[in-house]
Amino acid sequence: MMSQKKCRSVRVGSVEIGGPKFVIIAGPCSVESEAHLQETAAQVKKSGASILRGGVFKLRTNPQSFQGLGNDGLAVAKRVRDQLNLPIVCEITDPRQIGDMESIVDIFQVGSRNMYNYSLLKELGKTKKPVMLKRGFSALVEEWVLAANYITEGGNAQVILCERGIRSFDKITRNTLDLASVSYLKQNYEFPVIVDPSHGTGVQSLVTPMSLAAAAAGADGLLVEVHPNPDKALSDGFQTLDFKQFDSLVNQLNPLLTVLDRPLLTL
Questions:
Q1: What is the CATH number of the domain that holds 234?
Q2: Hey, which of 18, 100, 158, 266 would disulfide with 192, CB 3.0 to 4.6 Å?
């Protein structure tokens, strides 16, 4: 068993990230409709997820791509969150969104492109909501930690780091999932660390094996994209699991978590 620095866990209602139990955050890349989010939320919760994900403001490389439902999506997220009593994480892309989002989302997600957006990080440091900070796709671990410090120095210690893959010379996957960084962070810093195998690989068939590897590397949880029909998803369907695949992932993960003495947290 590798030695780990004592983790400063983050609480979201009854869910503790960085505590003795493993946490799964799952849901669609983008909120597409209320029916879509409600169906997905119910299924991922049934399978073992304890936090819902769903983007409403999307930063896309191609300006012609689906940009999210915006404030309409926030209203949908709130209704589904309340109906299923399931905490939700949504990406924030601009400091001006904090006022609209703060009463609705349970965790602010800072995406890879915004890891260096220090103005946004400083504003999030003034809030009382947990912040999930994704690693920039070309960021050094040191730069990632320093970005987290922009939030904590503002007074908000509730920061979760999310490894989501970095750019490398290899093109067999969308990004290169750096699981060594997970073990390193757990040994040297107090932040909870979760892994996003969906963006980390960009390959649907690799999400499950990399999820198992992430747990073995010491991650505190996973962030997984799930959709009822990935082929028809409005964003990132190629790296998204359907309900059956997600259920299979959890079933394969549970025996490993038993060996690691870190059971899955369920609601």
A1: 3.20.20.70
A2: 18
